[in-house]
């Protein structure tokens, strides 16, 4: 087959002549063909160049290519023989090179291919009328039926309300799952609606009993386990969904944490945000805060069930919101081994969740030892209060609890009468909050598997410390965790109490979620700061608010007495004796502590290496994956619009190593002229404006200056020091390029027509106080080779 392809390429290839030049443009269907380039052949040494023909490179040869038709999702490319153009040969892009279209779509897994029988092939179909493939490999006919190529035949794929399937000749359905860009066959879970696919738990996972037992040992053994926050969401899987939790079971996670909120009709559901925009409304824009973003508490459960959950790239999935009961029943049906932490932030809901666990445990008593209720310690300041609450509602008194002590909780508890919390014999401790921690950390066994203390500042109450460097930056390590090395009433004091009582200490490691699992721009840009609209945030340090808006930074959430947020630093977590660490990226944490011998290898025998596609800033900081150096991108004028006649299509900002002035010209001629429209943008810090951008030439030698030049247009400068404020800009979600050098005199960068170059108009950049379409710059990311 390979030899036959080589022979065909040699037969149809075109000789390269010195009379012509070839320059590359992008293809017209990049949803399917990615960044596969199309060569355009033009005469050399002429002012006006007409495109004579188009080519692709295959096996080192230049081969003629054409668009067979425009249908469905766009252009379908095929190579052909110019001497006999009747026959065409479809091609596809594998991410690196052009290849002849394979007999089976690259979006079909081997597992699905082997499941296809001849009766599934479409027998009466005119393939010449099918559209080009979309980004899932699906083609459409005139009636919008979808097909995929398998074994040189086409199989019809039907898109139901919640999943794809193939209908067999006998009427049975072969259900499919799209995972990592490929279709796999899957069996449906026998539940009402049949929305989610069943995942088998790995046979090598430690069972729940072993995990439960380990919780009782990790403090004495000084080991660490991790808790996966919101389940295993990924590029195609929504957070806090059945699919995310099932993937966690399959990945052998020792524990999962999820969130419980209440709907309008008083139904406890699994959901993180108080508003639904980010997770349920595809038209909602978190950066602009536009579109529908209703409070979850104003929605009935039935209304919420009609809205698919969105994956991290904000595409609808087959999952919908689930209730606590649905989670627990699916957990049992899946034989999920992971321990479940249900975090309840609404006080009135805490005991109700405990009662639900009790009721579900009538069918499976092991749930009492597998599900933990997590809540603010201020709601139940002592373990006896918790047990009393369980008795009052008729819940099992052995329901496990994970109380969380934060500075805000301590403030609330300390406002209670001194008699509200009993004083331990022989050691009355400093205050109510400290006594609350004492009684919780003294509770019997795994009824309280761990006590979590929120501590952000490495100087939060430890007396004797030593400043220690780490791969994530320096921190102040306490000399010991004894109570006499802490300031009474401080977070450090409470940690010392937990450690003295031998209870596992829980902590939380934040990981920026604005870029998590995204495939668009994840570095080099800034996003809005909802805490301070006069500043912006580096996208790599940005977190979604729980009302779905973008964004806040960890600095924005510091209390007056907190100088830093050190929680990301794993060496710091180890130094304060953390045993149970909750995070979105537990893989990086598992690998870090496994290498140092601190991980509980009974609970986590085979840590997973963090996936690069997660875009985890923690994985970058620990050097598991390279930290992106900003973004290489094209700045397209008119917000990505086009002017075919005067400007010859879309226009881009180009660098200029000769006269140092940036200019605007047709984007498609970048490979034909000795200038580049692939500029680099990075983020630096500005005291007044927070995170700001610097825009560099392609060779990294110059950066754009917002200062008007002698002839009124902007220039590039070689002084790119971060302190040089004339190089500071904001590129905003509204496509505006704001000039920060002008201070409060708000100005934006626009372009205007400057002249003609090779018969095509070009433009120059200048400042304006009245931005319009000529000051609108769409940022198109360029994938680095």
Shape: globular
The largest pleated sheet is described as: 8 strands, parallel, barrel
CATH architecture of the domain at 631-781: Trefoil
**CATH class identity of the domain at 631-781:** Mainly Beta
Major sheet: arrangement of strands: 14-15-17-18-19-20-23-28
Helix content percent band? 10-25%
Count all strands and give the number.
Answer: 40
Strand content: 25-35%
Using the coordinates shown, work out and report the CATH topology of the domain at 631-781: Trefoil (Acidic Fibroblast Growth Factor, subunit A)
Keywords:
Trefoil (Acidic Fibroblast Growth Factor, subunit A), alpha+beta, globular, 17 helices, 40 strands, seven-stranded antiparallel sheet, 785 residues, eight-stranded parallel β-barrel
Layout of secondary structure:
Blueprint: H1 2-12, E1 20-26, H2 30-33, E2 37-43, E3 53-58, E4 61-71, E5 74-81, E6 84-93, E7 98-100, H3 110-113, E8 139-140, E9 146-150, E10 153-159, E11 164-167, E12 173-179, E13 182-185, H4 208-215, H5 218-221, E14 225-229, H6 242-250, E15 255-262, E16 268-270, H7 277-280, H8 301-305, H9 324-333, E17 339-344, H10 347-360, E18 371-376, H11 383-393, E19 400-405, H12 407-414, H13 432-441, E20 451-453, E21 465-468, E22 475-478, H14 491-500, E23 505-508, E24 526-528, E25 536-538, E26 543-544, E27 550-552, H15 570-575, E28 578-583, H16 586-595, H17 617-621, E29 631-636, E30 651-654, E31 663-666, E32 679-686, E33 690-696, E34 703-704, E35 716-717, E36 729-731, E37 737-739, E38 747-757, E39 760-768, E40 778-781
Parallel strand pairs: 14-15, 14-28, 15-17, 17-18, 18-19, 19-20, 20-23, 23-28
Antiparallel strand pairs: 1-2, 2-3, 3-4, 4-5, 5-6, 6-7, 8-9, 9-10, 10-11, 11-12, 12-13, 15-16, 21-22, 24-25, 26-27, 29-32, 29-40, 30-31, 31-39, 32-33, 34-35, 36-37, 37-38, 38-39
